[in-house]
Amino acid sequence: MSIERLKERLPEYAKDLKLNLSSLAAEPALNDQQRAGCFIACAIASRDAETSKAIFAEFSPKLSPEGLAAARAAAAIMGMNNVYYRFTHLVSAPDYQTMPAKLRMNVIGKPGVDKADFELWCLAVSAINGCGACLDSHEKVVRAAGLTAEQVQAAVRIAATVHAVAVTVENESHISG
Asked: Global pTM?
């Protein structure tokens, strides 16, 4: 499935999502690797197979094998970290915040691509997963690495749109199937 087919799959009430997919696929604030990796990581985080297949078909050819592995790793590691750190942030007992996580996260230190790009993908996935602690952490890292507010916003706009497309496509398959 292509991204064009994915847009065709969206109902008329989701016309804005079609338009946003088109504009974000060529988002000028991000370079090709940043944009493609963001789409891939966010598709995985959004958990809809049809959306993921279309986004992988469109964007995986734009990444090196290392870039594709890193985008997948960003979604995987944040799937774990967003749950853990959201817990430590939301639970009222303060002692959890000072306890070591004791979870392996080696890929964050050596992602196989530019660290700022990987961190940007982690930030986008964290937006989907709703972890404020991770959003703050990754936003600080990417800004310190020289990324702009516009680049961060573009990644989060991709996350928001990909997630909304996945929710819509999944819902449509449930009510029409």
From this structure: 0.94
